[in-house]
TrEMBL record:
GO biological process, alphabetically ordered: phosphorelay signal transduction system
Family matches, as Pfam families: Hpt
The protein, known as: HPt domain-containing protein
Domain HPt: 47-106
Alphabetic keyword roster: Two-component regulatory system
Single GO molecular function: protein kinase activity
Amino acid sequence: MHSHFLLEPPAEPLPVFADTDPIDRVHLFRMTLGDRRLQAEVLDLFDQQIAILVARMDTAPPAAMATLAHTLKGSARGVGAWGVVRAAEAIEAAVAAGTDLADPLAMMARAGAAVHGAIASMRQSEAGQGGGL
């Protein structure tokens, strides 16, 4: 058994329907074993993480930007935020190639805003149903 699999599982392909919803709810359900409280907790943490790390990217040097993007990519894979995954990969690729970061950063800002809106909507929906998200 290779020990690197314990640290980072192999990347799974992004689903075809990734653009229809900022959070892949089926993936999130599977990752949390259907536990609604865990889903709420994970999404709250991810929402905070996006806000903090994207804000740090604005002033970070390129190498640090790539590290922050890599961190977000791992978290985004966990919740099924495929738009954030793609944006993080674009930032990593731009840093590696030494190209302009304006478009990948704008892509991340859009993806982060979409996820933030989706999480807020999910919270509102759950609150209306007497649940907790």
